[in-house]
Amino acid sequence: MTSDTFEDLYNDGEDYGSASKYMPTGGFQFMKVVDDRQLGSSPPVRRASVRRRRSSIRSKMHIQPLVQNSKQVEFHEDLNLRSNSGKTSATFRVLEDFEEINILGVGTYGKVYLVKDLITGQLYAKKTIRKAKISVDAKLLKNSRNEKDILARISHPGIVKLFYCFHDEENIDFILEYIPGGEIFYHLQNTKWFSEDTTAFYMAQVAESIQHLHSLGIVYRDLKPENVLLNAKGHAILTDFGLSSTDEVCRSLLGTPEFTAPEVLQGESYSFPADWWSFGVMIYDMLCGGVPFKGSNPEKLLKKIGTGKVQFPNSVMISEDAKDLIKKLLKKSPGQRIAVDDKFEEFKKHRFFRKVNWKELRDHTPPIVPDCENLEEACNFDKSYIQEALEKDKKLQDKTNGGVSPFMSVNPNVPNTPNKFDDSMFKGFSFCASNSFIEKHFENMKINEQ
Predict the structure, then answer these.
(1) How far apart are CA 6 and CA 29, in angstroms?
(2) Where does this protein hold ATP (predicted)?
(3) Which CATH class is domain 3-61+181-360?
(4) Which one of 49, 269, 306, 375 is separated from 235 by 20 to 30 angstroms, measured CA to CA?
């Protein structure tokens, strides 16, 4: 594995240089960037070990200066349609139909807004990605296209829904299901840790979502509390598919370091078991108030992930059932990890889930019911964090005149990095779900509200 697949291991402003044998050969350059995985809220910390939001690893980019193309792109130039009923009817929509009324998140590559459909009055989340940010690297562009393609084909109660995708001369805009309850990360920060019953309930819902993805040949690659949101009723919804892959055997170094499996960090090929490692880390994080492997710098962190033993804090009561499952999920070798995908029914019978009613998992009242009285206020998304991120984003834009981050390296000799903005690379991004798919979603929402 080459070194050009690793960016922003730690987002704390320090340059740690290259690492040891626990990292892929070639050395890594760590760059101070604000990662666009950091969307949502950041309430008061629950532990010193989690003072920052956990940032996803991205590909290090070799880029050339961009020249903005003035060409106007037609919306829906290649309209894709989805329908649960097999019908392909869809109403022609444009981006101007969706009015921004609040902001939910800010990142390097764009922003997430709360928007209202001016025609129907329904609320959505709009994820806006700057074309100038992702067009400079084929891998970033592929990740964004994968996100659209994956969400366009999936309909699952535990996975965020995509309704529309537009693009113009500056941005790609995903119109997504609005999930108003905020991140599990948000609620975890407020309570320090969850009880085993709460953790088992939510991780059972997450397990169903991950297993469904795997059944479709999709590796999620970035499971963490920041990427699981609660809907208005308090059920877990998996979001943010920007790092997901439809290649069942992967080699790219992507994910969030504290949650990433050893085989990924060591540059080996990997597949579905890497997601179940992250699943185990997330259980530990929710029960113990922190991740199992920590390091003061990337080298130490990766060494602990590669060779360290799982230890449980004395300050928290954790059952032997929970410890057993975590240890089985956090086996260093993916071949020794507990089998989940091929034996999912057996996995569900593990004693950690003994109180979970899997058949009625989405019908029960969840342990956490978020405050969603006024959906337009987006009260479960931390405004102070968003304001701070907006200020950082503005400073970055001022430095680069709206272009590319000054912390990213420039290499004019690297192929597939265009000298000017070429909109043809975005062909195929437009998408519109069928009327029946959208209507069914909002009908189900009304039923659930009763």
Answers:
(1) 8
(2) 131
(3) mainly alpha
(4) 49
Strands lying side by side in the sheet with 162-167: 98-107, 110-117, 123-130, 171-177, 162-167, 431-432
Amino acid, res. 212: H
Catalytic: which of 4, 137, 173, 222?
222
Give residue 60's identity as a one-letter amino acid code: K
The CATH number, out of the four listed (3.40.50.300, 3.30.200.20, 3.40.50.720, 1.20.1250.20), of the domain defined by the range 95-179+383-449: 3.30.200.20
Cα(241)–Cα(249) distance, integer angstroms: 17
What is the rounded CA–CA span in Å between residue 285 and residue 182?
Answer: 18
Q: pTM of the full predicted structure?
A: 0.77
Could you list the pLDDT tens digit for every one of the 450 residues in the chain?
333 333 333 333 333 233 333 334 333 332 222 233 333 333 333 443 443 566 665 543 222 222 333 223 333 333 344 433 344 455 678 999 999 999 998 877 789 999 999 999 999 999 999 888 888 878 888 889 999 999 999 999 999 999 999 998 889 999 999 999 999 999 998 889 999 999 999 999 999 999 999 999 999 999 999 999 999 999 999 999 999 999 889 988 888 999 999 999 999 999 999 999 999 999 999 999 999 999 988 889 999 999 999 999 999 999 999 999 999 999 999 999 999 999 999 999 999 999 999 999 999 999 999 999 899 999 998 777 677 767 776 776 666 555 443 333 333 344 444 445 566 777 777 888 877 778 778 777 776 665
Query: Was 304 annotated as part of a binding site?
Result: no
**What does each C-alpha distance from 393 to 386, 387, 430 come to in angstroms?**
10, 10, 27
Instruction: Tell me the C-alpha distance between 74 and 324, whole Å.
Output: 55
Give the start-to-end residue ranges of the domains of the chain: 3-61+181-360, 95-179+383-449
d(CA 210, CA 306): 24
Structure token pair of residue 272: 């579905």
Nearest CA among 281, 445, 296, 278 for reference residue 375: 445
